[in-house]
Amino acid sequence: MSLPVIARLPDALANQIAAGEVIERPASVVKELVENALDAGARHIRIETSAQGLGHIAVQDDGHGIPPDQLPLALERHATSKITTTADLFHIHTFGFRGEALPSIASVARLTLTSRATGSEQAWQITPDGILQPAAFSQGTRIEVADLFYATPARRKFLKSDRTEQRAVHDVLLKMALAHPAVTFTLIEDGAEVWHIPAAQGDFLQTYGPRLAALLGPDFSHAALPLHAERTEEGISLHGFISPPTVHAATNRQQYLFVNGRPVKDRSLLAAIKQGYGDVIPHGRHPLAVLFLTLPADEVDVNVHPAKSEVRFRNGNHLFGFIYAAIRQTLAGTSAATTVPVASQITPNPIGSALGSFGSPQIPSATSQITCTTPQIPPNPLFQATPQQLRKADNGEINEINQHVIDDHPLGAAVGQIGNTYILAETPQGAVLVDQHAAHERIIYQRLKAQFGQGRVASQPLLLPAIVPLPAADAATLLTYCSDLEKMGLVIESYSPTAVAVTALPALLGEANPAPLIRDLVEDFQEVKSSRNTLNQWLERVLSTFACHHSIRAHRRLSLNEMNDLLRQIETTPDCLTCNHGRPTVVQLPLLELEKLFERK
Ligand code: ADP
Ligand code: MG
């Protein structure tokens, strides 16, 4: 048997191996090229793609450029202008430092590099065949990447649908634009300008407000709470925006965390956000956040992940506590009259002007909250009830009827309503408190499920179609499911590349607001896609989202008849003791417990 022979890999192959880690999909190319442009001090970055990046990707900037004698070096492996010593590795102030991106891209695609360095009279270009030649170009750098993965066709097979790849590109740019408000970003897709996000100036709110609105949608920016926390002596600060407890989403995809300007995924820090909210948001729902964490460069190791999307902290526990405390503090101010929502402070800069095509059809209803509201629960509603709040049955006749109702039904007879939110009912065992909104939600969910089981959910056409603006990729995803959604009572049609028209809603939802519903659905689809749920889980998820948007909200006065009606419906609805989010809908107050409260027992 012949022994295996060890041989040095050819450069091209070594680069392809590196590309395997760094260049996973078109969005990775965009990310690396935009990072280089930012490192070069660009003020305007223009990104072009065709066929979701598989046709070509070009990134052009007005940064400092590359002198002609260094152009060939830029394409060599481990060649970088950003670090020179080991010590530098622990004080990284740039996005790049590995000197791997350009050679990796060039090993799997046809890369043309054109650059005119500051002070140079002439631009130069390296062609995919390695020819260096003069070129016409004003200032900065343009890198064009064509035929991505032509050299490693197997990679193409791992790509997701066009829409998913397009969304990944958008995601990358969204994060970059959020972290770099002083830079103008333009995105051209298949020849059409999709985004133009002009540089913003001014104080924190003026700077970020319009980008938040443009990129994360008006729902978030209208309600977002500014967060500022600092530990000056340690050089650590956290700034950004978080959602109030009433605004939440189906996934944590809308939590953006930047560490020294770099978007990172860090489970532990995301957990700090989640824990900071504790139980002020419903179980299974996620807050929205855009947070910029700044800390000394030597406190964070960015050299742990080839694509640099993960980092390691010298003192992770400490940061966890810092973020947790900052969130709690910001939320603690929520109920205080001093908190001013972002939206009211950014009036001079409407969304339409902040971003070209996202600013297309805007309807007033799109500006309400994203999803179901969680009523603030006072410490002990029973003891806080005033005579007006506790609407007691006030004549003997009704009391007699009540006695009979109490004896015959587990949830008894309604006595009154507390805080326009909870129904107090007397039962054979004592009393119950019912969260009317949660109960309604559960009932509607079960009815939707039953209707669907019988073939299709009844729908109610809208008098006027509701136009809901959405990122192009989301609109397209949603439309691919439109026939399924129609069976669930929701009728949507294409309106424009960046908006859908809702023409009918499930009849059970009443006058629900279509825009927040649609946005939550988009979230659902994202999560379902990533977690391979079964068809059944998918269905339950969508119907549960529908139910969450029914128009019978908390904080509505109900008559005794309506309350009793609701109690009877709960009794006959399967699984009605908790709402779709797992919160209880009914709390028992047995006589025995009441007696303990009054120290009779
Ligand atoms: P890294 O960014 O890790 O240094 P890259 O392979 O991404 O490695 O880039 C190699 C080098 O090419 C960079 O260090 C930089 O000097 C130069 N370069 C790449 N893109 C640009 C750009 N857009 N503007 C100016 N210089 C650039
Ligand atoms: Mg780089």
Give the SSE map.
Layout: H1 11-22, H2 26-39, E1 44-50, E2 56-61, H3 71-74, H4 86-89, H5 101-108, E3 110-116, E4 123-126, E5 132-135, E6 140-146, H6 153-157, H7 162-179, E7 184-189, E8 192-197, H8 204-216, H9 218-223, E9 225-231, E10 236-242, E11 255-259, E12 262-263, H10 267-277, E13 289-294, E14 300-301, E15 312-313, H11 316-332, H12 351-354, H13 381-384, H14 396-408, E16 413-418, E17 422-427, E18 430-435, H15 436-453, E19 459-469, H16 472-480, H17 482-487, E20 491-496, E21 499-506, H18 514-531, H19 535-548, H20 560-572, E22 586-590, H21 591-597
Parallel strand pairs: 1-7, 11-13
Antiparallel strand pairs: 1-2, 2-6, 3-4, 3-6, 4-5, 7-8, 9-10, 10-13, 11-12, 14-15, 16-17, 17-18, 18-22, 19-21, 20-21
Helix pairs in contact: 1-5, 2-7, 7-16, 10-11, 15-19, 15-20, 18-19
Helix percentage: 25-40%
Structural class: alpha+beta
Instruction: Give unreliable regions as ranges.
Output: 335-399
Q: How much is the radius of gyration in Å? A: 29 Å
Shape: elongated
How many helices? The count is 21
What compounds sit in this structure? adenosine-5'-diphosphate, magnesium ion
Number of beta-strand segments: 22
State mean pLDDT (0 to 100 scale).
Answer: 81
Strand content: 15-25%
Sheet with the most strands: spatial strand order: 5-4-3-6-2-1-7-8
